[in-house]
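Review form for a predicted model. The reviewer records the input and the model, then writes brief findings.
Reviewer: anonymous (R2)
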Amino acid sequence: MTRTVLFVHQNFPGQYRHLVPALQRRGDRVVAIGGPTSRPLPDTPLHRYDPLPPGGVPPCHPWAADFQTKVLRAEAVACCLEPLLRAGLRPDLVIGHPGWGELLVVKDLLPDVPVLHQVEFVYQLQGGDVGFDPEFTEADWRQRALLRLRRAPQLLALQDLDWGLAPTPWQASTVPAEYRHRLSVIHEGIDTTAIAPEGPARLQLQRAGLSFVPGDEVVSFVARNLEPYRGFHTFMRMLPLLQRLRPRAQVVIVGGEGVSYGAAPPGGGSWKEAMLQELGNDLDRRRVHFVGPVPHPVLHELFRVTACHVYLTVPFVLSWSLLEAMSCGALVIGSATAPVQDVIVDGRNGLLVDFFDHRALAQRLAAVLADPSPHNGLRREARQTVVERFDLARVCLPQQLELVDRLMA
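Model under review:
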């Protein structure tokens, strides 16, 4: 008997680029609803919705603007789904991400179909990303009020929750306690066969005319966008001291100049521009290489070459890049924040420093660069951690499929 799984994700395939083909390989039918930026997968019908209403976005109170965008997406998904149901679509399971409001009214069209929510993060009034960094915390009560109201769609989604899926224990802990009994902790998975220490290990920086191989004093930093949520300001403030301690160190920074989370710097522009202006002549820019976003294979080459990879984050969603770096056998210095501590134990499979202490970060990096061989055991353990806990084929995908079967049954 063929079963049908409906995926709803504004940027499909999103987290499901491995799960979708796995379902299809075993004979399940997959249908997807996504936003304008969604990308099709082979043999997967993709129906795109337009989140903008024909008459434009109506005016509303500024506090309600975020909620309104989610309501608009909920309506657009429902209007996309309704004709599919009339045409005969009968899903046995719906899988989606509630973060953009897309699942808010799915139960009104499919009241008897279980819905699996991808629960990445629930906003925290205390102890999460907002208010963590005092440099970017406003004392005004309005910031707290806005955060409280931004939680409303998340709490509405939890009220209708059949089952939730969180990638890490700390991210699961952001869900209110009364809903956690309907939650599984399963990561999306890392392809540790392809993302491994073995493979191309020479990094070419063509514009700089440089080439790096393992053993060179290379420090790496990677983020989707270079911004304070991922500790970019701390990393940059560390560099002048590191350059004095290690005159031969070369720094490779991967990431865009937009904003994924948080806000742009005061006065506009990018955080890269803001930090370069702040550091001025204290920074030797000849040894700092901003390469922008790079293809995945190049990123993995960087992880195989780097002498030390730095990963910093406020208490927020854990980046795939950390696990991919560890899977490549990179030595990671991470921030001693809860999402990172889910994965790295200081001195066992990596090193940890205080998120705000850029001097301690520079000194720890310098010590690693001065004598890398004693840290080889940390590299091996980092790789082993990902293989044992996050391997796509042997750990995560089988657990995801087992959960799907349980919900459809």
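Findings: The longest strand covers residues 218-225.
Further findings: The chain has a mean pLDDT of 95.
Recommendation: see findings above.
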